Amino acid sequence: MPVTVAIAQWQIGAPAHFDDFAARIEREVAAVAARGAQLVLLPEYLALELAHGFGAKVYGDLHRSLEAVDGCHAAWVDLFASLARRHALYLLAGTFLRRVGADFRNRAMLFGPTGRHAWQDKLRLTAYEKTAGCIVPGDALHVFDTELGRLGIAICYDIEFPLFARAQYEAGAELILVPSCTDTPAGATRVRIGCQARALENQLPVLCAVTAGTSDWSPVLDVNTGHAAVYVQPDRGLPEEGVLAACGETGHAWLMVTVDPAAVRAARAEGQVGVAADWDGQLAPGVQRARLAAWQQP
């Protein structure tokens, strides 16, 4: 069935307290729910906004920020669970750097209309995350059954790896949700290309939420680039450029769009090409590895 989606291009704020952060989230989600949103996507690293409320000695240091924000986890879960229940929608609450043992995982939490939640951890780390010395990758890939269809989540850099999205497609995912945070145009371009490539390969919609604007107080959220967008395979009945919708402006915005997985499935079945169905052709023994060819004499 068609799904009305609200995808954030989220201006990073500087909340003084958790309650200030919660009040803004409540206003924003209520506004898009009033416009008919059934699925709401927020961006990667959203929870790090909360570090601002702990003062400069904390928010200027990544390790201290993660420790402080992790203490807000129960309130975070309560906030987003209550919003999902109140507005009877699915809500991807960006990502939360959650303590697991001695380290932290970059975790995307999906909340449903009953208030229940599940999560996907980021599987591959960027150079910045690796050098932080306290963030570790996840070790499991999931899909999620919802009343809107089966969903997969790929956190930012993960969308640049084709086998993750392929495994989610093979597990029945109809949409892939991408919470992202990039600080350079090059990073935003890599994520965009990854989203478009995964949409092409698997012939399903890929939805990307991003952080926006500048935030001088945070060493992590300092500069933000990219545009909220929905990508699909360019084929019959779908946009020729493979972009179903995208925010044209910079800064804070919501992209409201109706995504119809059935129309995408029809294009998959009746399109000019069948990349998803032809995927296994790459696995034939003769093409598993490239071999040096011998030149033939004339």
From TrEMBL:
Keyword Hydrolase: yes
PROSITE patterns for this protein: CN_HYDROLASE (PS50263), UPF0012 (PS01227)
Keywords in alphabetical order: Hydrolase
Pfam families: CN_hydrolase
CN hydrolase domain residues: 3-261
Signal sequence, renumbered to the chain: none
Top-level division of the source organism's lineage: Bacteria
InterPro entries: C-N_Hydrolase, C-N_Hydrolase_sf, UPF0012_CS
A GO molecular-function annotation: hydrolase activity
Lyase recorded as keyword: no
Entry similarity comment: Belongs to the carbon-nitrogen hydrolase superfamily. NIT1/NIT2 family.
Matches recorded under PANTHER family: HYDROLASE YHCX, NITRILASE-RELATED
Protein name: Hydrolase, carbon-nitrogen family
